[in-house]
Design a protein that fits this description.
heterotrimer, A: 222 residues, mainly alpha, 0% strand, B: 44 residues
């Protein structure tokens, strides 16, 4: 099982490494968003600094939609999904492999994005324990929900435009939790950060479990 | 608008929407039922 | 006008049956009673004043919507288990009514806010949660409109129906904490404990009426969904038959 998960994740990451869609398209888009927010919000009145964490996570969610789309569009061509189904890999393993690959890609993107935000929005990063924990949990949660909806887009042709509508309301708790926890980590607001981390953790567990179970009917039905 | 006006709008709006929805269902089902033989309409 | 209407068919095609007619009559009587109690008989609330009259609508619509989404989720699980058309169509019908009730909840809530806060919108936790969930279920309905084979559409929507209902408590918790520091007069919470007499009766009457209304709409909506599927099959069958006939004629 673990071997199968690693197999799928490695396949996706190798594919990503060769095509550079994430690095060449999604990452520049995310950086563009950072720039656009600066245009939209007054840069001289400290609005950006105050909203750093929230803006950061909004960008991550937008990027996540693209990463999820990409992760499943590579399966759409030439009946790869049928090959996966016939390969004997358990659907749960395929699902977890996809989640792992999306998580790794998003984490790489977030690392660059934090640097960009630190420089461009004049933010001092800190509160490392909470910040890293938040980033990990929020990213896994996003990937867990995203991978489930990604396969939905794969089964329904024409559902690509629907993915943001399906995914983003579901990720609203992640945005709320991740923003609040990051704000606390960066010292922008007071209060204990662990309840927010716990909320994110619960989200991860719930959606990882549901995704593992529901991936089978999604893949097998045809 | 007065308080009474908002309250009236809430009540009227709600039931008008439900009535419109019900009318829409009934009109569409009349049209669909005309295409379907009676043995498929088991509730009749 | 010289156009003569065709004679009415012997049985008018409808989706009603004796059960739904009884339900329908009960709902209408209930609505009238609710209006009389909610708008005229009950006294204004000590704390909420006249605005409590909106709550007699607001609370039942949101409760009926949650019932609808639980029905959708249960039917979705049942579909993945039994794989029958019945559960799929039930899930779809219930979700559509839930979305309607959610829209009405938001509408009522905004009017209540206009009176109480002076503005249509404040980030009150209940209203915010309702709006997020409303959008979630709009996504569910949008998925159902994408052309696909019957079984694919049913499977995908069942999965989304389950994920969406799981999201309800998580969104509730998150939004509550998000607004935790900003306690303001909310639609819920201030009323329930002290409600007495006709106010309490009216609150329960509202719940009953909207649950009856939900049931009545659900049965009709389900039958419509069923009829639409049958009608689509017949159109398809006829098209295939026509195509066959053509190819037979074309054959030498």
């Amino acid at each position: 099982m673990v071997r199968d998960v690693v197999l799928i994740a490695a396949k996706d990451l190798r594919l990503e490494w060769r095509s550079r869609v994430g690095a060449g398209q999604v990452l520049p888009f995310a950086l563009l968003c950072v720039l656009l927010f600066a245009f939209a919000l007054d840069v001289d009145r400290g609005v950006l600094q105050q909203a750093t964490a929230g803006l950061f996570w909004v960008v991550v969610l937008f990027a996540a939609v693209l990463v999820v789309q990409r992760s499943f569009s590579v399966e759409a061509s030439d009946g790869v999904i049928d090959a996966l189904r016939l390969s004997g890999l358990s659907p749960a393993a395929v699902y977890l492999g996809k989640v792992a690959a999306i998580t790794v890609e998003l984490l790489a993107l977030e690392a660059v994005l934090w640097l960009a935000v630190a420089v461009l929005y004049d933010t001092t990063l800190g509160g490392w324990g909470l910040l890293v924990g938040t980033v990990l949990l929020a990213t896994v949660g996003t990937a867990a929900a995203g991978a489930t909806y990604g396969v939905v887009g794969l089964r329904l042709r024409g559902a690509e435009t629907l993915l943001p509508l399906l995914l983003l309301p579901l990720l609203a708790p992640v945005l709320i939790g991740a923003t609040a926890a990051s704000d606390i980590a960066l010292g922008r607001s007071a209060g204990p950060g662990w309840p927010w981390a716990a909320l994110l953790g619960m989200f991860c567990v719930v959606y990882l479990l549901l995704g593992s179970v529901l991936f089978r009917p999604l893949m097998e039905d045809s | 608008m007065s308080t009474t006006g908002y309250i009236a709008a809430a009540w009227f709006g709600t039931f008008a929407a439900v009535a419109a929805y019900a009318a829409w269902i009934i009109r569409r089902s009349r049209r669909a039922a005309a295409l379907v033989p009676e043995e498929d309409q088991r509730w009749m | 006008m010289s156009v003569i209407a065709p004679p009415p068919p012997t049985i008018r095609p409808t989706t009603s049956s004796r059960a739904t007619r009884v339900l329908g009559v009960l709902s209408i009587v209930g609505i009238v009673a609710l209006a009389v109690f909610g708008l005229f008989i009950t006294p204004p609330d000590a704390e909420l004043g006249e605005t409590i009259r909106i709550l007699y609508m607001h609370v039942p619509t949101v409760s009926a919507a949650y019932v609808a989404f639980v029905v959708t989720a249960v039917a979705s699980v049942a579909y993945l288990w039994k794989r029958t058309e019945f559960w799929d169509l039930l899930a779809a019908s219930s979700a559509e009514i839930g979305v309607l009730f959610f829209a009405l909840t938001i509408f009522n809530g905004m009017l209540w806010g206009k009176i109480t806060w002076g503005v249509f919108w404040r980030w009150e936790p209940r209203l915010t949660t309702t709006t997020v969930l409303f959008l979630t279920y709009l996504g569910y309905l949008a998925v159902r409109r994408i052309p696909a084979t019957v079984s694919t559409r049913a499977t995908v929507s069942a999965v989304i129906g389950i994920l969406a209902v799981v999201n309800i408590p998580i969104t509730h918790k998150a939004v509550d904490w998000w607004r935790g520091l900003h306690q303001e007069k909310t639609i819920f919470g201030t009323v329930d404990p002290e409600m007495q007499g006709t106010q309490l009766f009216t609150a329960y009457l509202g719940l009953t009426v909207f649950l009856l209304l939900f049931l009545w709409l659900l049965i009709h909506r389900f039958r419509l969904a069923w009829l639409s599927e049958r009608a689509e099959e017949r159109v398809l069958d006829r098209a295939i038959a026509d195509r066959r006939a053509e190819s037979v004629e074309e054959a030498p």
